[in-house]
TrEMBL record, chain A:
Keyword Ubl conjugation in annotation: no
Every PEP-utilising enzyme mobile domain range: 316-394
Name of this protein: Pyruvate, phosphate dikinase
SUPFAM superfamilies given in the database record: Glutathione synthetase ATP-binding domain-like, Phosphohistidine domain
Organism of derivation: Lentzea albidocapillata subsp. violacea
From TrEMBL, chain B:
Official protein name in the record: Uncharacterized protein
Organism: Lentzea albidocapillata subsp. violacea
Top-level taxon: Bacteria
Length: 448, 202
């Protein structure tokens, strides 16, 4: 077929043709992991559509036969460009598969390549406008089917610290888009262990299998339907800062990668990031969100701007809000840091916090703000109670934990020791310089 | 919208604040704003916080604003038109937040770092995208203003912030109390308040 490919382990084409999402699904097939049946429409078909406003000749016929192979089903229709553009394009779920409905869904996803927001995103990130997106059509699995169903996202290791323990979120009884949207409160990933032990075991096995293949931490999106696990998306973990240092060092220690590979995987940027003050790793984290403005802030909880302004006269305040409105700018100006239940890296709260250089944690899913207390991570924290937040890793901690700078500590020391061995230079220099010197030697060796 | 309601509504959208921001919001002189605020205070609708020197709505001021804004919208009969233009606003909103974020932070080697504005080519690219965005935003604001004329004021305010940024005051994009982003956030709050939509529940 010219425009359509069945998703299977035999599919050998690169992301430029089938998109990053389908490329990951092919990998999952090859590893023998459970993936819902489906097919992908190529980026070239999208390019023709964007150029001419019509499907390329022959696509309709190929779609008809792909529909026949899949049989009567309900499907998801998702964009998947060669380059990741998270949340920028259309996704259609729960589509009853007929030639007409698929036709319409496909056109809508193709067309979403060119929304103004998507164009702005590409201009910002230097992504060419003429790439187009592939479209993945897969049989739906239902996270809301019954009591033994749900959806979630998982990292094979903790992306905040690099610790070798699976990390993520799950929503029982919901479809996957509810997890990503942040509209519904999620539970920590490990709650699956008690509620669905078989799913948990399969998920752990899958994460470890994918890690072995990538020789790197990984990220997956999954759904379990009536106690059966399905994987819907996969990519490498893309850790940064202290987590990247710990990951590379641990992988080298485990023999998964060589020390030279560990050194080459880190960018000097990562080491500069390691130097940002962090809450010490052993602190009792009661909740975690998304760190969107780095730094650590400790202060007493205030739940309104008025309260923050009033309390700030007696010492530092952390403003805790469901999300922010213009009224909160005043409270944030008075506060030393902010926590919100909703929002992502490009939320109003994040933009305002960064404009003031205040540590901020947004998108803390299990946070409810009351009038004189907040419910967070299953605990009740009263107004005036002391909390500490970490705007890098997104941690929220009760009281005042120790704050460390250059937290990756032992791991970083060892890694830089390897770097000095490679470069043969043990002189006093900055950490990024030590890494760079080793990378120069290693790249020269690779080139030779 | 009568002058007293305009001032009352400014506090609803901006939050507790001083005369300067209410004047900027309403387009009135600070002295006129102050005399309106004093009348509103006498009526129990606003209050002056001595401690942090700002004017704030009282609970009854908040309800009065909601009731009068709603009555005005109903009598004009333009709720459907405003709601339709609000949908167009919601399409633009995430893009503006993307742009503000791109202005503040950059991604290099997968690591997000603060934009230190040393790369003038990058800054120029983002500023150009703001300009492109603004051209589309004024179309939506015109639709909002066709339904409720006072929304036209946001065009003037956003245009001024962008002009200043283009003239070199780069902090007017996303980093000040009168930045393009702050004015946009006030517009968002204004739309929610005028249409009676709760920003969050629980």
């Amino acid at each position: 077929m010219e425009w359509v490919r069945h998703l299977s382990g035999a599919l050998g084409e690169p992301p430029e043709v089938v998109g990053g999402k389908a490329h990951g699904l092919v990998l999952l097939h090859r590893l023998g992991l459970p993936v819902p049946a489906g097919f992908v429409v190529t980026t070239e078909a999208c390019r023709v559509f964007l150029r001419t406003g019509r499907f390329p000749g022959g696509l309709a016929g190929e779609l008809a036969s792909a529909i026949e192979v899949l049989g009567p089903s309900t499907v998801s229709v998702r964009s998947g460009a060669a380059v990741s553009m998270p949340g920028m394009m259309d996704t259609i779920l729960n589509l009853r598969l007929t030639p007409d409905s698929l036709d319409e869904a496909l056109k809508s996803v193709f067309a979403s390549w060119n929304t103004p927001r998507a164009r702005t995103y590409r201009t910002l990130h230097g992504i060419p406008h003429d790439l187009g997106t592939a479209v993945v059509v897969q049989r739906m699995v239902f996270g809301d089917r019954d009591d033994h169903s749900g959806s979630g996202v998982a990292f094979s290791r903790d992306p905040g610290t690099g610790e070798n323990a699976p990390f993520g979120e799950v929503l029982f009884g919901h479809q996957g888009d509810d997890v990503v949207s942040g509209r519904t409160l999620t539970l920590p990933l490990h709650t699956i262990a008690n509620r669905e032990p078989a799913v948990w075991q399969d998920l752990l096995d899958a994460l470890s299998c994918i890690e072995q293949h990538y020789r790197d931490a990984c990220y997956v999106e999954f759904t379990f339907e009536s106690g059966v696990l399905w994987l819907l998306q996969v990519r490498p973990g893309r850790f940064t800062g202290a987590a990247a240092v710990r990951l590379a060092t641990d992988l080298a220690d485990a023999g998964a990668i060589t020390r030279a590979e560990a050194l080459l995987r880190l960018a000097p940027h990562h080491l500069r990031h390691v130097r940002v003050p962090r809450i010490e790793p052993d602190a009792d984290v009661i909740a975690r969100g998304l760190g969107v403005c780095p730094g650590v802030a400790a202060g007493r909880v205030a739940v309104t701007s008025d309260e923050a302004v009033r309390m700030a006269a007696d010492g530092p305040v952390v403003l805790v809000r469901p999300e922010t409105s213009p009224e909160d700018i005043r409270g944030l100006a008075a506060a030393t840091g902010i926590v919100t239940a909703r929002g992502g890296p490009a939320s109003h709260a994040a933009v305002v916090a960064r404009s003031m250089g205040k540590p901020a944690v947004v998108g803390v899913a299990d946070l409810h703000v009351g009038s004189d207390s907040v419910a967070i991570g299953g605990r009740t924290v009263g107004v005036g109670a002391m909390v500490t937040i970490d705007g890098t890793g997104g941690e929220v901690v009760l009281g005042t934990p120790r704050v460390v700078t250059g937290g990756a500590d032992g791991h970083l020391r060892r890694l830089l020791g390897w770097a000095d061995e490679v470069s043969g230079d043990g002189s006093e220099r900055g950490e990024a310089e030590r890494l760079e010197a080793a990378q120069v030697v290693l790249r020269r060796r690779e080139g030779a | 919208m009568s002058r007293d309601l305009l001032v009352l509504h400014a506090l609803r959208c901006v939050g507790t604040t001083g005369l300067t921001r209410v004047a900027s919001f309403t387009g009135l002189d600070e002295s006129d704003v102050e005399s309106e605020l004093i009348d509103l205070a006498v009526a129990g609708l606003v209050t002056h916080h001595r401690g942090f020197g700002g004017w704030a709505l009282t609970e009854s001021g908040r309800s009065a604003d909601a009731a009068r804004t709603k009555a005005e919208l109903e009598s004009a009969g333009t709720r459907p038109a405003l709601a339709e233009a609000f949908d167009a606003f919601l399409v633009l909103n995430p893009e503006l937040l993307d742009l503000c974020t791109a202005w503040q932070v950059r991604s290099a080697d997968g690591v997000t770092t603060v934009n230190d504005h040393s790369d003038t080519a990058y800054d120029a690219r983002v500023l150009a995208l703001f300009t492109d965005f603004h051209a589309r935003a004024v179309v939506v604001i015109a639709a909002l203003a066709a339904a409720v004329p006072r929304f036209g004021r946001y065009d003037a305010r956003l245009s001024e912030a962008l002009d200043r940024a283009q003239a070199g005051e780069l902090e007017r994009l996303a980093d000040t109390i009168d930045s393009f982003h702050t004015i946009w956030a006030e517009l968002h709050e204004d739309l929610l308040a005028t249409l009676g939509i709760a920003r969050w529940s629980g």
